[in-house]
Automatic annotation (TrEMBL):
UniProt similarity note: Belongs to the peptidase S8 family.
Species this protein is from: Mortierella alpina
GO molecular function (one): serine-type endopeptidase activity
Name of protein: Uncharacterized protein
CDD domains, per the entry: Peptidases_S8_5
Range of residues in the leader sequence: 1-18
Length: 880
């Protein structure tokens, strides 16, 4: 039976009439030589097509593969022209790759200027909700806690009005609520100057607001959007709660005040980004978030953009029990500036700091920089430029972000290059930090490879920079964004929760800064989820609690794969998958809970119950299945610091169900027991995080399948190394002129005047993993405990601590410097005042509590005795 089906599919693929080549007027349209967009027949898969090309002796490389549009873009090296390619069995249509126009839209011949082609909404079902169901978020209020909003922007105008407005008393203002808690000059450190006007002078909040509720479909005034676009909920009512000045940071208390006002002004949903990478949910914003959600407000928070910093890096606001931690998928399309090199056109993304098109004379040539082994160099060491002439040229470097980020820009500049292009790794176009005074941009991974090949052919090829951006289908489109942070959380709970489009997002910007821009980040994904809440509430004419909506969104999300992978991406990366708001609204089934935390081998939850509820009007039969996902090996055998990018391995848990088919009457719930077995291959010493999805598929036609992700860690998580001992941490050192140096022999640190001490003891610590309790304990020479270290640089040494990022902005290894000026807290009580210990010899012990332990000292701690130091102090006389 199966064989016959395959044979007939092949027959259909090979016997269909020849495909069609669509010629262009080559004298009028710019095109990429030898590059073609190829659409396959409906029943032809990528693999079949490649076989067919090979059988017909086509020599080619793949520029891009698409899935909604069933086909690929190829660079053909064997001289086959369009007509010849169209005759190959299985091919439906062939086009040249042209400039400034979208190559091919899903299923039709739309142009790039048609917003439905480039919109992200085709990825989430929101296009159908807008067009067919007329859902717009009307009647729902969303609060935006951010940099304010440029409410005059025409994309926020009420229908019929030319520009937007702010306030309850204006005429139908879309930005109806809000407050400026801080004023323009606030930077996080100075005193806020609140006023009633939440105008944005930064841009971020306006971008977020546009994603939620902008409407730039029909803008007639300047500046016009590069392409029309529409937000998720274009008739939602918005509250602008401004907690940032034009630049700088914002304080916790300001944010809490904003959250509360948003709640008091009746916001149904808030979106916020703040938080640290603590991995623990015990921060004030997460705590308040849980309270607000329990009272009926929903909250979407960004998971964070530290996807190349290894596991356990999700931001903490979204870690609240009821809140939603939102991760990002890349848009299928990107609107990019581009350049031509070696006859091909390539998109590029300027660095965050450069943030503008690169405008260089067209006579610049390229210099890829290589390491001795022939691989492209990351450009993080000056030595790579020895003996190279890069004067007036553009450098191409490798984009490994684990060693240096923007540092390579200044190094290239010093070497005399006029710009640097960085090949994104592993895939896609990352945006990097860069510098304000130097053209710095990233290109797709595939672009980097092709540029090197073109350079080898002709090192004198010149780069021509395009004058206006256009639309490209992008590497990694439809897959989890490389930049989005990996879970799990500190207690091995399954976070992030859900994904939304966050890579390559065109939205509104402050009018003063051009009115529109493309940004990437989980900051772009979380407002998408906020907007999706509004559509859901409008569709249901009800306001379910945030965690209820989270469950439905997670149950019905689209499970994604990493670029080029056949297996599903880890749930620690994508959560339950990409939100599908249409399915969320249409489903008549739910699964509870919305995540299964199997924990580690020691606490392994072998048996778990889930509840499936049929909310429909008819009885329904469901089939249960298991879809495994990639396992993430987060440590190398001997590493004491997690890998920046975990090693992905196909290694799966097995699951058996108490029933694999279940009939559920209308309105009833059935419990199913799942029995898990840990994956076989993964080595406990590498602490692999494995995951997968349990799916219940209704048997009726058109029924929406629902699922729940599970996550677990093989090994004993209490054995995860805390300190990065491989790199020599923790250690007892000295600080001299801000440098960390070895302690000279026989030193007695003179701390009688700590402010002016020449040499200060410093405890260098590098936490590779967050800990529930990081402590530095000080003992006297009789081994009596005198207290917890108090440091002028970092404060009290006890309490939870997050891990450090692997490298700094400039590529230097990060660690914490606890200077010690001779003070301790005699007890682990943050309300105590530090006291100065008497002169003498002291022993310093660094102890970090291991994960998922009770915290008994020393059994549950990783303990390092750093040895003894002698200090001279001038204790203050006791106060009256
Ligand atoms: C939305 O959330 C993201 C991430 O949490 C944050 O960066 C952004 O500032 C938030 N925007 C609003 C409007 O709160
Ligand atoms: C490149 O073009 C610029 C501007 O036209 C010119 O000043 C420069 O001399 C040219 N350099 C070379 C190497 O041709
Ligand atoms: C790990 O350490 C062991 C023992 O020190 C050594 O034999 C082995 O080669 C190391 N493995 C790696 C991958 O460095
Ligand atoms: C950290 O450890 C100290 C000392 O055992 C204890 O008093 C304190 O409560 C702990 N803090 C946390 C957050 O567990």
């Amino acid at each position: 039976m199966k064989l016959a089906t395959i044979l007939s599919a092949l027959a259909a693929a090979t016997l269909v009439a020849a495909g069609k080549f669509h010629p262009i007027d080559e004298s009028k349209v710019d095109y990429v030589p030898n590059a073609y967009i190829i659409e396959y027949n409906d029943n032809v898969r990528h693999r079949d097509a490649h076989n067919s090309f090979r059988a017909n002796k086509v020599d080619y490389s793949v520029r891009n593969e698409f899935n909604v549009f069933n086909g690929a873009a190829l660079t053909v090296k064997s001289g086959h022209e369009g007509e010849a390619l169209a005759k190959i069995p299985g091919i439906k249509n062939v086009w040249r790759v042209t400039l400034h126009k979208i190559p091919k839209a899903p299923k039709s011949t739309k142009k790039a200027t048609d917003p439905s082609v480039v919109s992200v909404h085709h990825m989430t079902g929101v296009d159908v909700l807008h067009k067919k169901h007329k859902l717009t978020g009307k009647g729902i209020k969303i609060g935006i806690i951010d940099t304010g909003i440029d409410y005059k922007h025409p994309a926020f105008a009420a229908s019929g009005a030319k520009e937007g407005c702010f306030g309850r008393y204006g005429k139908n203002c879309r930005i109806k609520y809000g407050w400026d808690f801080v004023g323009d000059d606030y930077n996080g450190a100075n005193t806020p100057k609140p006023d009633g006007d939440p105008m944005d002078c930064n841009g971020h909040g306006s971008h977020v607001a546009g994603i939620i509720g902008g409407n730039a479909m029909n803008i007639k005034v300047s500046p016009k959007p590069p392409q029309p676009f529409i937000g998720v909920a274009p008739e939602v009512t918005i509250g602008a709660y401004r907690v940032f000045g034009c630049y700088g940071t914002s304080a916790d208390d300001v944010i809490l005040a904003a959250m509360e006002l948003a709640f008091n002004e009746g916001m149904d949903v808030i979106n916020m980004s703040l938080g640290e990478d603590s991995s623990y949910k015990s921060n004030p914003t997460a705590v308040l978030a849980d309270k607000l959600i329990a009272r009926g407000m929903a909250l979407a928070a960004a998971a964070g953009n530290q996807g190349t910093d290894g596991v356990w890096m999700v931001s903490d606001t979204g870690l609240s029990d009821l809140g939603t931690s939102v991760t990002s998928f890349d848009n299928n399309y990107g609107f990019y500036n581009s350049f031509t090199y070696g006859g091909a056109v390539y998109p590029y993304a300027p660095s965050d700091a450069w943030n503008m098109a690169i405008d260089l004379p067209a006579n610049t040539t390229l210099v890829p920089i290589f390491e001795k082994d022939g691989s492209l160099s990351d450009g993080c060491d000056e030595d790579v430029y020895n003996g190279l002439d890069v004067q007036g040229k553009v450098v191409l470097a490798f984009g490994d972000q684990s060693r240096c980020l923007s540092g390579r820009g200044s190094i290239a500049k010093d070497a005399g290059a006029v710009a640097i292009l960085v090949q994104t790794t592993p895939v896609g176009i990352a945006t990097m930090g860069g510098s304000y005074d130097y053209p710095f941009a990233t290109v797709e991974h595939g672009t980097g490879e092709e540029m090197i090949a073109a350079w080898r052919k002709n090192p004198k090829s010149r780069i021509a920079w395009s004058k206006r951006p256009s639309t490209f289908t992008v590497e990694n489109g439809g897959s989890p964004s490389v930049f989005s942070s990996l879970g799990l959380d500190g207690e091995l709970r399954s976070k992030p929760d859900i994904a939304a489009p966050g890579g390559n997002i065109l939205s509104t910007y402050t009018l003063a800064d051009g009115g529109y821009t493309v940004l990437s980040g989980t900051s772009m994904a979380s407002p998408y989820i906020a907007g999706a809440h509004a559509l859901y509430m409008q569709a249901k004419n009800a306001k379910p609690r945030g965690d209820e909506i989270r469950k439905v969104f997670k149950n019905t999300a689209t499970i994604g794969s990493n670029f080029g992978s056949k297996t599903k991406a880890s749930a620690a990366k994508q959560g339950a998958g990409m939100v599908n708001v249409l399915s969320a609204i249409m489903t008549t089934t739910s699964i509870s809970p919305d995540h299964i935390d199997l924990l580690d081998s020691k606490h392994f939850k072998k048996s778990v119950k889930i509840s499936i509820k049929n909310h429909g009007k008819h009885s329904q039969t469901y089939t249960l299945s298991h879809v495994p996902a990639d396992a993430l090996n987060s440590y190398n055998a001997n590493n004491t610091f997690p890998l920046g990018i975990p090693v992905i391995e196909p290694d799966y848990a097995t699951v058996s169900f108490s029933a694999s088919k279940v009939k559920i009457p209308a309105g009833k719930t059935v419990k199913i027991t799942l029995n898990f077995k840990e994956p076989k291959k993964g080595k406990a010493s590498e602490f692999p995080i494995y995951s997968g999805f349990i799916i219940a598929t209704p048997n009726s036609k058109g029924g929406v399948p629902v699922h729940v992700p599970y996550t677990g860690l093989k090994g004993d998580v209490s054995k995860v190394p805390m300190q990065d001992t491989v790199q020599g941490f923790p250690s007892l050192m000295a600080q001299q002129d801000w440098k960390v140096v070895e302690i000279p022999a026989k030193t007695v640190f003179d701390l009688t005047d700590p402010e002016n001490a020449e040499l200060v003891p410093v405890i260098a610590s590098r936490l590779g993993s967050h800990t529930p309790n990081f402590t530095i304990r000080v003992f006297d020479d009789k081994k009596t405990f005198v207290g917890y270290l108090y440091s002028n640089s970092l404060g009290r040494a006890f309490g939870w601590a997050g891990r450090v990022s692997s490298t700094s902005f400039h590529g230097k290894m990060m660690f914490s410097r606890w200077t010690w000026e001779g003070q301790v807290l005699t007890d682990a009580d943050p309300t105590l005042e530090p006291v100065t210990v008497p002169s003498g010899t002291y022993q310093v012990v660094v102890a970090s509590q291991k994960k998922l332990t009770k915290g008994d000292y020393p059994a549950d701690y990783e303990v390092f005795d750093l040895g003894k130091i002698s200090i001279k102090t001038a204790p203050k006389p006791a106060e009256e």
